[in-house]
Each structure stands twice: as structure tokens, then as C-alpha cells.
Write a structure and sequence with these properties.
Length: 60
């Protein structure tokens, strides 16, 4: 699963903690354009699919 955080404000230490603990794929600061949001979600979905496909091909 790829996680995307969209927020209007975050202190730097909170951002660092979120990135490290939640394993964020991307951090977007509001206001974010619809095009950027869609692009980010599409990229995250593609990476998710690639990761899932690679896991299927690896021996357990």
C-alpha cells in the first residue's frame, strides 16, 4: 500500500515523524492542484501494482 499525506500545515518535526512512521509515498501541501493529486495517486497505484507483481514472482 502506498500512503499519500495531503495537509494544509504541518510542523517539520511532525512531517518527519509522519514520513518515518507511516512510510509515506508522497507528501502534498494544500492547496494541491487536481492534476498533481491525480498524478500522485496514479503513480502510487502503479508502484503498488509493480510491488505486488514482484512479490508474486518471488519465491516464498
Amino acid at each position: 500500500m502506498q500512503r499519500v499525506l495531503v495537509t494544509g500545515y504541518m510542523k517539520p518535526e511532525m512531517l518527519l515523524r509522519s514520513v518515518n512512521e507511516a512510510a509515506l509515498y508522497r507528501y502534498l501541501l494544500k492547496p494541491v492542484s487536481l492534476a498533481e493529486l491525480v498524478k500522485t495517486v496514479m503513480e502510487a497505484a502503479k508502484l503498488h501494482d509493480q510491488t505486488a507483481e514482484a512479490a508474486k514472482k518471488s519465491p516464498a
